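Re: the request from the purification team.
They wanted to know what the chain is likely to look like in 3D before they choose a buffer screen. I agreed to run a prediction and write the result into the notebook, where they can find it.
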Amino acid sequence: MVHESISTELATAIALVKTGVLLLGGAITYFAYRAYRSQGSQSLRLLTVGFALIVLGGVLGGITDLLLPVSIASGILLDGLLTLVGFAVITYSLYTR
């Protein structure tokens, strides 16, 4: 694969946005986890896992091409796959009791 070069400004913008995703998404995941711990609900546990997968996908998708010799498209695919699985887990958590 050919590693696509991106500008320093774009790399910085990606890093800043993904840091925001990590901080805000991490906070949401943490609060979902706290709710699960206080209630002990299986659906809240699944909700936590779903949010964690979405955050992980966003962060890994954004930094993969910066850290590894892969294309930007590979990072976007990784982000999309983890987001899809995260939303599937969240949907299941809201469907179950």
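For the purification team: Residues 8-39 form the longest helix (32 residues).
Please add any questions underneath this entry.
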